[in-house]
Amino acid sequence: MTKDISRATALGVALLMNQAAAGIVDGLLGGGSSISEGSEGSEGGDSISPNVRKFQLNVTEIQTSLDGGDVRSMFALNGRPFNGADAIVIDEGDVVEIEYINSASTNSTMHAHGITQQGSMYSDGVPGVSQHPIQPGQNFTYTWQANEYGLYWLHDHVREEYQDGKAMPLYIRPKEDRQTPFHSFTNDSNALQSLTKQDRDPQIITLADYTTLNGTAQKTMSEEWHSELLCYDSILINNHGRKNCPSMDKLKSYADANSNALIAADFITAKGCPDIKQSTPAVPENVTLDADIWYDCTETNTTLPRFEFEWTSDGSDGSEQWGVLQMVSAASHWSYIVSIDEHPVYIYAQDGHYHTMPTSAPADAFEMVIGERLAVAFKLHTPGEYAVRVAVLNAPQILAAHATIKYGDAETVFVKEEGLPPLPASIPSINYGGGVVKENATVVESTQLLAYDAPAVPKPHQKADHTLIFTLQYDGTLYWGMSDNGAYVEQYDMAKQNAETPALFDMQGYLDASSTAHYPAHSVVDVVFITNGTTPQPPHPMHFHGLHRHLLATGTLTGDWNYTDVADFDAKHPDTINWINPAYIDTFNTPTSMPDAPSYLITRFQAGDAEPTLLHCHIGSHKAQGMEYLLIAQGEQPDIPTYYHKKAAGEL
Q1: Exposed, middle or buried, 339 (CB in 10 Å: 0-12/13-18/19+)?
Q2: What contacts 281, CB < 8 A, 6 or more positions away?
Q3: CA quadruple 446, 470, 282, 257: dihedral, nearest 10
Q4: Molecular function terms in GO for this entry (predicted)?
């Protein structure tokens, strides 16, 4: 039974977490092909302790194919890559205990993406920062309290291996008395009740990009190609992928017509990829590109995922019926544009927290960047089956995937185009190339949403206590980096993942390390991202571990960033910064930039406890090449349970 934590004392919660982490609470349940779970709660006197939810995840290796193509090696969580896209579901206020068993042949950790970990940074799952990598044959128990609500995800944080199957969704049901933003788009009482019910028990979509190459092979071959892998086989929707092969005429038309497709029709392959030997000067002439990876496309025939919704009446009584989908992008390389045919959506949550739309109009399509989580609601109007379209956005590949939504018993006509699956004959808002085809369509970007129940922005219109200005740059080879104040392109030393002592247990010793910035605990901190270069620069999904941040402003500069701080920028550009209700998120997508027009993105937050946290680009190859920074909040650290001290010392 789930207990209400509102009356539990802070001391009692801390004691329970320490006991759980130290192994005093009973052990975890046994394994199996699905998530093993146990729970317990205790009640006594005038206080109620939080419910303790225990799970076990066992990492193994299997041979499989998720898109009907060639079999490849993948990691499996409890027997299935990505745990079969099934979520761990808990309640706001629960204490979570996850025993992570590494039965695979490579090192691993498990990061709870978006969970703030205030007072429990020892469970953040970052090698070299909060723990040592978990060696094959070893295990590690993560313990933290679910002070958040909404959709999050778990993923490996060693190298770039989460794309190989070590990721899965995590859903935290909001407290029953938590206010929702549903009234911003409907006042129908039945609809509000249905939306609340679906929000507590949602259908979840996990998106991922998929290729026959595992992450390690991608990195090795990228060195040979002098290029990142810019050619994926398919997009997974809840572990279902399909190799689509539109005609060359179609692919070229998408490349020509779509301004968001960064690929020239003259250099496109049958897989919708760039022929990098022709389009990329850095690729040596003597490099041989594998035809199966870059050129040849063989269509596969797999079943499309279907998401069904309850349809109880024809609406003649005037009542509204709605559907809800929660989505997480567990991709490693591409961001997406998403739409549901004939069903504009209201985005009501982002990165776990409730948000509202930038205007009263629903979105015909919306952007979804790597690591981001969105919740959408849409009105059901005409029974039938409709296509869900997910296409690569702002990237040099033409690629898309499909699913369907269905409600009612009406028959649906399906249409088959060359190289694509049979799809409902519904009217699309976007095409296979990610281009918007609906006239006067509304497309919402991830930086445009407005916070609904976030804390107030600290020190509005005032100078922050500390300002960090990071320049995101490409060094002209394969590597991206970020530098404090743009002095030079700096790559994080990935050898730190195997440091003798993780940063959490020796913060003072890391203060002067490379790719490290620090500020006082509980101070107000601005982080400004500037993206520039001698060539056009793509967006970067920058993810902060620890606390969420306020997205104050984003845009394009006419020259360099010539401001002493954000308050100076605000004074010179009044009404540019949103001080009232900016998005409150953990993953920020920087704008594209041109050589003569650098882009900027401004965030602000109030630092929490003294702790080290990581900031990094969530494009897998960029992170693996060192596009990350260590942020240290200085001060008196919270107590760390004995179990984690012993793990850090190598005694367990």
Answers
A1: buried
A2: none
A3: 20
A4: copper ion binding; oxidoreductase activity
The pLDDT tens digits for 533-561 are 767 788 999 999 999 999 999 999 988 89
Instruction: Give the residue-averaged pLDDT of 523-534.
Output: 90
**At 197, which CATH number?**
2.60.40.420
Chain position carrying tokens 């695979």: 104
| Cα distance between residue 477 and residue 564, in whole Å | 32
Taking the chain, what is the end-to-end CA distance rounded to the nearest angstrom?
32
What pLDDT shows up at residue 530?
A: 92
Give the Å distances, CA to CA, from 200 to 176, 356, 651: 9, 18, 41
101 and 192 part of one domain: no
- The answer to whether residues 393 and 503 belong to one domain is no
Residue 569 inside a domain? The answer is: yes
Q: What is the mean pLDDT of residues 278-303?
A: 90
How many residues can be counted in the chain?
652
Q: Are residues 169 and 184 in the same domain?
A: no
Alpha-carbon gap, residue 604 to 526, rounded angstroms: 4
Parent domain of 584: 466-644
What mean pLDDT value characterizes the chain?
Answer: 89
Query: Is residue 457 assigned to a domain?
Result: no
Residues 132 and 277 in one domain: no
CA–CA separation, 448 and 446 (whole Å): 6
Q: Is residue 554 part of a domain?
A: yes
Which of 394, 417, 450 finishes a domain?
450
For residue 387, tell me if it sits in a domain. yes
Residue 554 identity (one-letter amino acid): T
pTM, full prediction: 0.93
586 vs 395, higher pLDDT: 586
CA dist 594 to 317, 336, 400, 511, Å? 54, 21, 26, 34
What is the per-residue DSSP string for 503-570?
GGG-HHHHTTSTTEEEEETT-EEEEEEEE--SS-B---EEEESSS-EEEEEEEE-SSS---SSHHHHH
